[in-house]
Amino acid sequence: MESIGGHLTNPQSPADPTLAGKIILVTGAAKRIGRGIALRLACEGARVAIHYHKSQNQAIRTAEECGGAELFRANLESVPEIARMFADLEQRLGRLDGLVNNAARFTRFDPLDITEQDWGFIHSVNLKAVFFCCRRGARLMRKTGGRIVNINSPGGLRPWAEHAHYCSSKAGVIMLTRALSKAFAPGITVNSVAPS
Fold first, then answer.
1. Number of domains in the chain
2. 8 in any annotated domain
3. H or E stretch at 144
4. What is the pLDDT of residues 95-124, one digit of tens each?
5. 70 in a domain, yes or no?
6. Is the confidence at residue 163, as pLDDT, over 90?
7. Which structural domain, as residue segments, surrounds residue 124?
8. Is the peptide bond before 159 cis (omega within 30 degrees of 0)?
9. How many CB atoms lie within 10 A of CB 121?
């Protein structure tokens, strides 16, 4: 995949007509996996919305490489900021067809050393924010339908000794995904993917 004049090209993968023009928000899209997801969606013809919190320079670069994607800054620890972000998205883009909940945190501690602050730091973004983003996204998708994908981790499937707080947050996302897939069906699908 390469960027030419701000537009992505990939001769081996022509644009998927099912994504052409679809508006898809990717949280944590400034760098790493989120950036890769945003670039791929743009390559497939989607109109990507880039969420970031602190990584403004990287977010601007990703947005440019996605053909001039809209930027949305929010601290996902804050439910009011999540609400503001989705209201801003609706005002600026008019609708939402897809949501990729990618933003996450990762720390390493012996379980005997995990504090309430450590626990909250992980769960506030890895689980709480995923729920409130799903809820807000689903409200925007109710009339026309849509797709939600929650990015997970092998840590949600397998126990890691020094990541009990992280593993539990990701296991929570798996069950949250299952519950919301039932609650939002049939118009909105909810799935989880664990890259590894």
1. 1
2. no
3. none
4. 999 999 999 988 788 888 889 999 999 999
5. yes
6. no
7. 15-193
8. no
9. 16
Tokens of 187: 């118009």
Question: Would you call 190 exposed, middle or buried from its count of C-beta atoms within 10 A (0-12, 13-18, 19+)?
Answer: buried
Q: Whose CA is closest to 106, among 34, 155, 147?
A: 155
pTM tops 0.85, yes or no: yes
- CA–CA gap between residue 170 and residue 168 (Å, rounded): 5
pLDDT at 11: 36
Instruction: For residue 2, tell me if it sits in a domain.
Output: no
> Is 166 one of the catalytic residues?
yes
Options 101, 166, 184, 192, the catalytic residue: 166
pLDDT for the residue 17: 63
pLDDT (tens digit per residue) in 62-82: 999 999 999 999 999 999 999
Beta bridge partners of residue 96, listed in sequence order: none
- How far is CA 115 from each of CA 134, 138, 144, rounded to the nearest angstrom? 28, 33, 43
DSSP annotation of 32: H
Task: Kindly state whether residue 101 falls inside one of the protein's structural domains.
Answer: yes
The CATH code of the domain that includes 29 is 3.40.50.720
- Cβ–Cβ < 8 Å for 55, 76: no
